Amino acid sequence: MGEIADNGRSLVARMLDELDTVTSRRGELEDLIIEATDGDEDDAKRDSLMRAVSLPGRANTLKTLALALKTISEASAPQGKKAAQQEKADGIGSRFRPLGPPSLKAVK
Fold it and tell me: Across all residues in the chain, what is the average pLDDT?
């Protein structure tokens, strides 16, 4: 599982680099799109390409990559998220431990 998680993290990192490049060269990409679609009778291709480099498109890509990285990290953890949280809570002290069933004591 560790190798798969490492490969996944590497892929997310490469895709973030691509997103950074698109973001830093957005103006140039828009100019190239306009040139490539100049003379097209239908603007659908140009509109589709422009949506791909738009802020909402890039923001959605970033959100998806962040979610993928979170999922990869949680899946590669040695134990599940809830188990890790419970272990941490158990280690804090008895004040935060769940109460057990009531016990009956005889009074003399």
Answer: 85
Give a three-class secondary structure readout of the chain.
CHHHHHHHHHHHHHHHHHHHHHHHCHHHHHHHHHHHHCCCCCCHHHHHHHHHCCHHHHHHHHHHHHHHHHHHHHHCCCCCHHHHHHHHHHHHCHHHCCCCCCCCCCCC
In the structure encoding, which two tokens stand for residue 92, read together? 């804090």
What letter represents residue 98's amino acid?
P
What radius of gyration, in Å, describes the C-alpha atoms of the chain?
26
Reading the block at residue 107, the tokens are 């009074």
Would you say residue 96 has pLDDT above 60? no
Q: How far apart are CA 106 and CA 20, in angstroms?
A: 71
For residue 98, the 8-state DSSP code is: P
Q: Which residue has better confidence, 91 or 17? A: 17
CA distance 43 to 35: 13
